[in-house]
Write a structure and sequence with these properties.
Blueprint (H helix, E strand, L loop, with lengths): L1 E5 L9 H15 L3 E7 L17 E6 L2 E6 L9 H21 L5 E6 L5 H11 L2 E6 L5 H5 L6 H17 L2 E4 L2 H9 L7 E3 L16 H6 L6 E6 L9 H11 L5 E6 L5 H10 L5 E4 L7 H5 L4 E5 L14 H6 L4 E4 L3 H9 L2 E4 L4 H12 L2 H18 L2 H12 L2
Parallel strand pairs: 1-2, 1-5, 2-4, 5-6, 6-7, 7-8, 9-10, 9-12, 10-11, 12-13, 13-14
Antiparallel strand pairs: 3-4
Helix pairs in contact: 1-15, 2-3, 3-5, 8-13
């Protein structure tokens, strides 16, 4: 079977979506299918296209023998909303050429958001005469409206119209969470059109190892009890709760340190907030390749996942939950809904409500004082994801549900 993956985000970019899509692509290939990718030149999250891709409109390369067709994009890190729209639409139209350059396809796997890739999706279906599998990893524009990030009624109306057209055009709609599945059913999408493709993890990439002493020295974490947050730092993640907990712990527990690895739209504001709070117990590290993350987890005693309280958060499964559990370190999950249920089922950590920094600080202290509990929870969490959330088993079941 020949499958074409269409996505704006893909390695060597770093980020949750990039890692997930690469793992899905590898698992599809390992199941015996042919797969090609049409994507943009790398530019996320720093808004800089690497030298080897600059000055070109199109380039073909590969990663681990997966053919990749890359097309031009207007790079942007952060800034005004119109610049972000330029970023989206520049790839929407340049990707037409990538689709033409790609080989024959029986199925086209399309990652959304960004929602505007729907225009490219419709073009790809017409050109390739292939069945469309629309992978909805976030309900846009609904989630952006819920968070108050998009308020223009005209834009919301146009986006909702495109969203409906995409759902109608797709042969199957693939989703990451049970919450999205229920939302699609509520919109009248037939249940037989929906398939489940949840987040997963490669357990070997996050197998526990001895602390990386060189990295420990570099980050000035020797002798520290480290709380690790690794992933996107966006508005929905509500990472203020970690900084407020750090402030509460700083004076009486200087041995506790927070290591925040990643990037996102909120990172500059969070770093400014930490500076204003005079936090010397917080370390900041940019996004790292997934192959390096094992070394950062080796420094941690506890991993952390946070979400802000908002309407759609109950249907969210943060991707950072699975590496956190796979690393055999207890996970503190600040949030509600599906992510919380997974942590509870795993018995690999503690769940607390969102936006309660004093409770987070208290939970950290309780785990610090109970090394036996930390060890037990860590082992249970790793066993759980190996059994239920390895990419091999997840993608295998997804392909089976599609009848492929």
């Amino acid at each position: 079977m020949r499958i074409l993956m269409l996505t704006q985000y893909f390695p060597p970019e770093t980020g949750a979506a990039q890692v997930r899509l690469f793992e899905v692509a590898k698992a599809i290939r390992n199941q015996g299918h042919e797969i090609e990718v049409v994507t943009a030149f790398p530019n996320y999250p720093n808004g800089i296209i690497p030298p080897e891709y600059r000055g070109k409109f199109y380039m073909k390369d590969s990663i681990e023998n997966i053919p990749i067709h890359r097309t031009w994009i207007y790079p942007v890190q952060r800034g005004k909303f119109w610049k972000r729209l330029l970023n989206y639409f520049s790839f929407v139209f340049s990707a037409f050429y990538g689709v033409l350059k790609a080989g024959k396809a029986d199925y086209i796997f399309v990652e959304s958001p960004p929602l505007f890739i729907g225009f490219t999706m419709i073009f790809a279906k017409w050109v390739k005469r292939a069945k469309l599998i629309l992978n909805v990893s976030d309900l846009w524009p609904e989630s952006a409206v819920s968070l108050g990030l998009v308020t223009n009624k005209t834009l919301i109306s146009l986006a909702e119209g495109l969203e409906r057209r995409m759902y109608k055009t797709a042969w199957k709609i693939s989703t990451q969470t049970e919450g999205i599945i229920q939302s699609l059913k509520d919109r009248g999408i037939p249940p037989e059109k929906i398939v489940f493709l949840p987040n997963g993890v490669d357990p070997e990439l996050f197998a526990p190892i001895k602390p990386d002493e060189e990295l420990q020295e570099k980050l000035k974490l020797k002798g520290k009890f480290v709380i690790l947050y690794a992933g996107t730092m966006g508005y929905a993640h509500g990472l203020e709760v970690a900084l407020q907990a750090a402030e509460h712990l700083q004076k009486e527990h200087p041995e506790i340190a927070f290591l925040l690895v990643g990037d996102g739209s909120e990172k500059p504001r969070l770093m400014e907030m930490a500076e204003e709070m005079n936090l010397d117990n917080v370390r900041w590290v940019d996004f790292q390749p997934i192959t390096e993350m094992q070394h950062y987890y080796s420094l941690a005693e506890i991993s952390l996942s946070t979400l802000r309280r908002y309407k759609l958060s109950e249907g969210v499964r943060p991707s950072k939950v699975f590496p956190g559990l796979a690393s055999a370190k207890p996970l503190i999950y600040v949030g509600e809904g599906e992510g919380a249920k997974i942590v509870e089922q795993s018995k690999g950590g503690v769940v607390i409500p969102p936006e309660e920094p004093l409770l987070l600080a208290k939970t950290i202290l309780e785990l610090q004082q109970d090394p036996i509990l930390r060890k037990t929870q860590g082992e249970r969490g790793r066993d759980f994801v190996i059994k239920h959330y390895s990419w091999k088993s997840i993608v295998g079941q997804w392909l089976k549900d599609l009848g492929l």
